[in-house]
Structure formats: C-alpha cells, structure tokens
C-alpha cells in the first residue's frame, strides 16, 4: 500500500494534476536546498517526501487569479 494514499491527498488538493505539479515543484526544491520539513519520512525519494508534507498539512496550494 502506498503512503500517503491518493484519497487522503485529494482531500488536501482536489486535482490530481495540481497535486502532481505541487509535489514535483517541492521535490525539486528539496533536492536543491536539502530542506525537508518532516524529520522522519517513510519515503526515500523526494517526491514521496513532498507528498508526505502535503498529507501533514505542511504544504498546500492556493489558486491565484492570474490571467
């Protein structure tokens, strides 16, 4: 079973596309800066760590009204 589950993640960010975009951007940021917000993660890879941050409400997405 995958952790965190897609169901719990979609409660935080309601679009799969947005979820993937936010996690990928945060994963790149973590890889460059080595600044994860969770001490002990279950995931080894950066994308998994980013998803864990989203699930722990440490990372979120706000929709902008940019045109």
SSE layout and pairing:
Elements: H1 6-12, H2 16-33, H3 46-55
Helix pairs in contact: 2-3
List the defining traits of the structure above.
single chain; nucleotidyltransferase; globular; DNA-directed RNA polymerase subunit omega; 52% helix; 67 residues; transcription; DNA-directed RNA polymerase; mainly alpha; transferase
Word description of this protein:
It is a single chain. The protein has 67 residues and is mainly alpha-helical. It has one domain. It is 52% helix and 0% strand. It is globular. The model has no long low-confidence stretch (mean pLDDT 88).
Q: Biggest sheet, in brief?
A: none
Which word captures the global form?
globular
> How many helices in DSSP terms?
3
Beta-strand percentage range? under 5%
Element order: H for helix, E for strand: HHH
- Helix/strand/pairing class, anyone? mainly alpha
Q: Identify low-pLDDT runs.
A: none
Mean pLDDT over the full residue set: 88
Rg for CA atoms: 12 Å
What is the CA-CA span between the terminal residues? 40 Å
Integer tally of domains: 1
Helix content: 40-55%
Number of strands: 0
InterPro entries: DNA-dir_RNA_pol_omega (IPR003716), Pol_omega/Rpo6/RPB6 (IPR006110), RPB6/omega-like_sf (IPR036161)
Family: Belongs to the RNA polymerase subunit omega family.
GO cellular component, one term: DNA-directed RNA polymerase complex
Catalytic activity: RNA(n) + a ribonucleoside 5'-triphosphate = RNA(n+1) + diphosphate
């Amino acid at each position: 079973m995958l952790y965190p589950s897609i169901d719990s993640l979609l409660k935080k960010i309601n679009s799969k596309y947005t979820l993937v975009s936010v996690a990928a951007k945060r994963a790149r940021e973590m890889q460059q800066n080595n600044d994860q917000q969770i001490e002990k993660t279950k995931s080894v890879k950066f994308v998994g760590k980013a998803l864990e941050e989203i699930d722990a409400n440490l990372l979120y997405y706000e929709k902008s009204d940019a045109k």
